[in-house]
Amino acid sequence: MPIRPRPAEPLRVAILSLPESGTMAAFGLHEVLGDTGTNDEALSRPIHPALVASRRRSFRSSTGLRVTPEGDLTGDCADVVIVCDIHLNRDESPEGRWRDEIAWVRRHIDHGALVCATCSGAVLLAEAGLLDGAEAASHWTMADLFRDRYPAVKFRPERILCDSGRGGRLITTGGASSWQDLALYLIGRFCGAEEASRVARLFLLGDRGYGQLPFASMARPRQHSDAVISKIQAWLVDNYATANPVFVMVGRSGLSERSFKRRFSAATGYTPVEYVQALRIEEAKQMLETDDMAIEGVSVAVGYEDPTFFRRLFKRRTGVTPAQYRQRNRIRGLSL
Fold first, then answer.
1. How confident is the model over 91-149, as pLDDT tens digits?
2. Deepest in the core among 37, 52, 242, 329, taking most CB within 10 A?
3. Domain ranges of the chain
4. What architecture does CATH give domain 227-329?
5. Answer CATH for 11-215 from 3.30.1050.10, 3.40.50.880, 2.60.40.10, 2.60.120.10
6. What pLDDT digit, counting tens, does each position of 313-325 carry?
7. In this structure, are residues 15 and 26 in contact, taking their beta carbons and an 8 Å threshold?
8. Phi/psi at 23 (nearest 5 deg)?
């Protein structure tokens, strides 16, 4: 557990923002955490957030808004560190980046601080090796990066908030707005449930009990040069509902079943069955959002004659039932 100041002392929270970060989490955390402890009736412990960066000078964020840090990486250790989201293009590698920031985070770990990351900020912690062997949440679009670059990390794309080890001193969150969940978690942990409830009511911070799976799309398959597998992928786009698809795919490939499965997994990062299921569930999600067809009809349309199996698979992959997904994501006005 982190070393905490005496109850009367404010909780010092350092919010790390990078030029690759957006401003929603950094500014939102600063405002919400800064309001904690201002209610005279609750008499809760106050939080003093500070926005920090590698240098104490203004810079433009990834969204183009200007950020003016209140401190740099040379000050005393805070009680809590929060690494904000990091925007990376698909062709950008984290290798060799953020050396000063990683050293700063490690210094806080060594001093017993609680270290957190919001959304894709978990990439910095993974690059530092702090998440090896542990579960970690991040934005669902980071799944392929964690799979390929950080195989020792147990990536949990369905989680909104994840205890990532070090005796509860590493916390990661998933999704761009998961900073809200982190804020309430920190307030509840250090200032009490009553104050967390007050802040939640004041800022209308809602519940995301279903996690982020309902919002996730199929992770992008790996880029590869296997022409045989590429042809099978192209065929699947229009034939994912085919009965016994893996059997048909093997036949069309001209390979033995064992060789086909090995090459398909190596090329795409999916087993053939997982790939077909992902395509079918993506199509089902589109139909649930835009079509009035009954759930049973959607099941058959995407290749599952057994609606019960379809419902179980859909919930396993998205975290909600087909009916719940339709209710939450239905495009309004289609039947008017």
1. 788 888 999 999 999 999 999 999 999 999 999 999 999 999 999 999 888 888 998 89
2. 52
3. 11-215, 227-329
4. Orthogonal Bundle (1.10)
5. 3.40.50.880
6. 998 888 888 988 8
7. yes
8. -110, -15
